[in-house]
Specification:
- The chain is of the alpha+beta class and 139 residues long.
- It has a single domain (19-97, 104-138), classed as Histidine kinase-like ATPase, C-terminal domain (Heat Shock Protein 90).
- 31% of the residues lie in helices and 25% in strands.
- It contains 3 helices and 5 strands.
- The chain has helices at 27-39, 47-68, 110-117, and strands spanning 18-22, 73-78, 82-89, 120-126, 130-138.
- It has a 5-stranded antiparallel sheet with strand order 1-2-3-5-4, with helices on one face.
- A hairpin with a 3-residue loop joins strand 4 and strand 5.
- Helix 1 (27-39) packs antiparallel against helix 2 (47-68) and helix 2 (47-68) packs antiparallel against helix 3 (110-117).
- The longest helix is centred in the middle third of the chain and has 22 residues, at 47-68.
- The chain is globular and about 35 Å long.
- GO terms for molecular function: protein serine/threonine kinase activity.
- Keywords: Kinase, Serine/threonine-protein kinase, Transferase.
- This is Histidine kinase-like ATPase domain-containing protein.
- Residues 23-134 form the Histidine kinase/HSP90-like ATPase domain.
- Pfam families: HATPase_c_2 (PF13581).
């Protein structure tokens, strides 16, 4: 670590990890929030990471509304090497993959995409209290 005399920074001068907590009312609103979050990060994320974050957020929020009936909270955070999206919803039912409907009528692609894009994927479910799905992406 560089000393302050060498032009380094102290712990108090380093930017705090970026965090956004919100309750979007639609997947479209969540995508705007995620896009603004990614654009505001310094150092910036790669274009691929920004795109993957939008896909993950859109799918998580869509699934919360579609399968749980509501979204409790969307949390976005970033650290030095990762970006994380977490969605909390009121259902304690765990996500289940299914065969995609290739005609496009019934979906089935979202959970598979989330699994493919995630560096890590964690689902925490509390019976009667809902669940939180956390996805970490490489920055």
């Amino acid at each position: 670590m560089k000393s302050l005399m060498d032009g380094g920074t102290s712990e108090s001068e380093r930017p705090a990890p970026a965090v956004t907590v919100c309750r979007p009312t639609s997947a479209a609103e969540a995508r705007v929030i995620a896009s603004e979050f990614a654009e505001g990060l310094n150092p910036p994320v790669t274009a691929r990471t920004a795109q993957n974050l939008l896909i993950v957020v859109s799918e998580l929020v869509t699934n919360a509304f579609r399968h749980a009936g509501a979204l409790c909270e969307l949390r976005l955070s970033a650290a030095a090497h990762t970006v994380r999206a977490a969605v909390e919803d009121p259902s304690d039912t765990l996500p289940q993959g299914r065969a995609p409907d290739w005609s496009g009528a019934a979906g089935g692609f979202g959970w598979l995409m989330i699994q493919r894009l995630a560096r890590t994927l964690t689902v925490v479910s509390e019976p009667g209290s809902g669940k939180t799905i956390m996805v970490t992406l490489a920055r």
